[in-house]
Every structure is written in structure tokens, then in C-alpha cells.
Backbone:
């Protein structure tokens, strides 16, 4: 059992290797592992974030709880970061880990790149989550890997 009142969550920049297994397990379970590799994963402009519990001194401990990848792309002919591969370990969903990942990622990316625009292909089941964090729907529903998705967008001012 995780004692959320004793250990705080942290989100930090990580290498793709740190998040790959979680991404595969949550988003591509039952598919070959290479289905969890995205074009752009290894680009120098790509950001990978991982969420962990931290010890009292602020160091990450234990296994990864959640992950998110941001790949430099375009939105309406302007540079924007595309969110890909966002996942939270099943037993830790509902703890605010996804929210923390997005807020941390947006902050770091804006500070390091001065790019304030973000977009994603969101699963229909996740629309409410993104809306609560300021994302807006930008498309009709479409099928991606046989699942309903919409394009979502966020401008962070």
C-alpha cells in the first residue's frame, strides 16, 4: 500500500528506456514491443517524463508510476509539442500523477524552448481529464488503432 501522505510524487525528465516498459504495458499491451516505439522518440528535441515517489531528501525511489513523451511537431504550421505515450500504472491511476506530469512537462518545455503550444490525439475516454487541465477539442471523433480519439490542443500563456 502506498502512503501518499508520507511520500510525495515527482515528475522528472528521463530517457526513453526508463518509460518504455510502462508505455508498452499500458498503451500497447498484447502487441509487439516495437509498437510502443514512436517516430521521434530519439530526437534531441523530444522530452520524456517519468513520475516516481520520492524519499524525504527529494530523490526518486521505486518503479516508475507514470510517463509522458512530448515530440516536437507542428500545429497549424507553427512549432508545437505533441503529447504521445502518456500512461499511468494501473494501481496508481486517480492519484493526480497524470496531472502532475502534464503541468511539470509544460513548465519545463516552455522554459527550455519558449514553445507554448501543445496537442495530442486523445482517447475518447481521456477527454474529460484533458479538459480539466485546459485542453480543448479540435476535431471530430476519429478511429486510431480501432479506438475513438479526438485531436486536442492547449496554448499555455
Residues:
Amino acid at each position: 500500500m502506498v502512503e501518499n501522505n508520507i511520500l510525495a510524487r515527482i515528475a522528472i525528465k528521463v530517457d526513453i528506456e526508463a518509460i518504455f516498459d510502462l508505455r508498452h504495458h499500458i498503451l500497447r499491451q498484447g502487441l509487439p514491443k516495437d509498437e510502443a516505439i514512436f517516430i521521434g522518440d530519439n530526437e534531441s528535441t523530444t522530452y520524456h517524463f517519468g513520475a516516481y515517489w520520492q524519499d524525504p531528501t527529494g530523490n526518486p525511489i521505486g518503479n516508475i508510476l507514470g510517463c509522458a513523451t512530448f515530440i516536437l511537431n507542428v500545429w497549424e504550421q507553427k512549432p508545437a509539442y505533441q503529447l504521445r505515450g502518456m500512461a499511468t500504472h494501473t494501481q496508481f491511476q486517480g492519484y493526480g500523477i497524470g496531472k502532475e506530469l502534464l503541468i511539470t512537462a509544460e513548465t519545463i518545455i516552455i522554459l527550455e524552448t519558449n514553445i507554448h503550444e501543445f496537442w495530442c490525439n486523445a482517447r475518447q475516454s481521456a477527454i474529460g481529464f484533458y479538459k480539466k487541465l485546459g485542453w480543448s477539442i479540435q476535431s471530430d471523433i476519429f478511429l486510431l488503432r480501432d479506438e475513438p480519439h479526438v485531436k486536442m490542443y492547449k496554448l499555455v500563456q
Remarks:
- Confidence is low (pLDDT under 50) at residues 1-6.
- The first helix runs from residue 16 to 27.
- The chain has three helices and eight strands.
